[in-house]
Amino acid sequence: MAKKVAVLAVDPVNGLGLFQYLETFFENGIEYKTYAVADNKEIKSNSGVTLIVDDVIANLKGKEDQFDALAFACGDAIPTFGENAGKQYNQDMLAVIKAFADKGKIMIGHCAAAMMFDATGVAEGRKIAVHPLAKPAIQKAIATDEKIEVDGNFYTAQTEFAIWMLIPELLKVLK
């Protein structure tokens, strides 16, 4: 039986990355629900396309047991996070990431996802693929130069252009 995935979409989200995950899940019968890391369900892609997702991050808190995996769809995550770190939705995102990881859920992400996994301490000692510009910021995890990394329950891609390489690995654990 296929697993169920909670997909976090930052605002603005990288549409190429987000839709690679969503299309893969849809085409392979993997149930998913999208959550905006924002105050409302309407977010934008990096290219300005308006998207309406299923719910907001605040409503995912405490529901980790309803899902088998968490996917972090990056976008302008770090600059936006830096500008809005104190906002409740960002605090909720960090709490959700930690809660999913603490329960041993499958953790999926690309680009700055590794930074969020590292910032929460959940990827400590794990090899993670991270955007080359973000690599110096990794403190607890092991940032590599690989396009993708699979280390235990962590599945990371360096950028949205490497997600296609990660998908076969994801399908092995999600189908």
Describe the protein.
This protein has 175 residues and is α/β, with parallel strands linked by helices. 31% of the residues lie in helices and 26% in strands. It has 5 helices and 11 strands. Strand 3 (42-44) and strand 4 form a beta hairpin. Helix 1 packs parallel to helix 5 (163-174). The protein starts with a strand and ends with a helix.
Topology:
Layout: E1 4-10, H1 15-27, E2 31-37, E3 42-44, E4 50-52, E5 55-56, E6 69-73, H2 77-84, H3 88-102, E7 106-110, H4 113-119, E8 127-129, E9 142-144, E10 148-151, E11 154-157, H5 163-174
Parallel strand pairs: 1-2, 1-6, 2-5, 6-7, 7-11, 8-9
Antiparallel strand pairs: 3-4, 10-11
Task: Give start-end ranges of low-pLDDT stretches.
Answer: none
Largest sheet: 7 strands, mixed
Strand residue percentage: 25-35%
Q: Looking at the chains present, what oligomeric state does this protein adopt?
A: single chain
Give the helix level as a range of percent: 25-40%
Terminal-residue CA separation: 7 Å
Mean pLDDT: 94
**Computed CA radius of gyration, to the nearest angstrom:** 14 Å
Q: Biggest sheet: strands side by side, in what order?
A: 5-2-1-6-7-11-10
Report the count of strand segments.
Answer: 11
